[in-house]
Design goal:
The chain has 143 residues and is mostly beta strands. It has one domain: Immunoglobulin-like (Sandwich). The strands form three sheets. It has a five-stranded antiparallel β-sheet with strand order 5-6-3-9-10, with no helix packed on it.
C-alpha cells in the first residue's frame, strides 16, 4: 500500500493491496464502459476508492468518476463513460481518453489461487473490449 507493485507470489494473510485497473482508448468516441475484475479466491475487497480517496495515496493517478460500482464476494464491477459525443469530440483535446479505477483488497485465505483476467468492454458494442492477462496469487499464512 506504499505504491510499490505487490509481489503476488508472496502475499501474507491480512496483507492489504491496492488494485488499480487502467485503460486507454485509441480514439475519442463516446463509450459506455463496463469493467469486471474477477477476484482470485483468497482475496476480499475491503472498499472501492473514489475521487478524493486517491489523495491519501500519492502514487495513484486521478481516479475516474464512475457511474456505478458493485462490490461482490467474487468480483468488482464498475461502469463509466469515456470519450465525447461525435458532435463535440473535436473541441476536447483528449486524443486517447483513459480511465483509472482502484480498490483495496485484503488477503484472507492462505493458498495458491488463479488470478482471472479483468475485462473492460463497451456495454453497447461488445466487440470493443480488452482484458488483462491471467496469473496466480500465493498467500502465506499469517505468523
Amino acid at each position: 500500500m506504499a505504491g510499490q507493485p505487490a509481489d503476488l507470489a508472496n502475499l501474507k494473510q491480512n496483507q492489504r493491496v491496492i488494485v488499480v485497473l487502467s485503460g486507454r482508448m485509441e480514439n475519442n468516441l463516446l463509450r459506455q464502459i463496463g469493467v469486471i475484475d474477477l477476484l482470485p479466491a483468497g482475496l476480499e475487497i475491503e472498499m472501492p476508492l473514489k475521487g478524493d480517496d486517491a489523495k491519501a495515496y500519492s502514487f495513484l493517478s486521478t481516479l475516474t468518476d464512475l457511474s456505478m460500482t458493485d462490490v461482490r464476494d467474487d468480483r468488482f464491477v464498475a461502469a463509466l463513460t469515456l470519450g465525447w459525443p461525435a458532435d463535440d469530440r473535436w473541441s476536447r483535446k483528449v486524443e486517447h481518453p483513459e480511465f483509472h479505477i482502484a480498490y483495496i483488497a485484503r488477503a484472507v485465505t492462505a493458498g495458491r489461487f488463479v488470478m482471472p483476467a479483468a475485462t473492460a468492454e463497451d456495454m453497447y458494442a461488445p466487440g470493443v473490449a480488452a482484458r488483462t492477462r491471467m496469473g496466480t496469487v500465493t498467500i502465506s499464512p499469517a505468523r
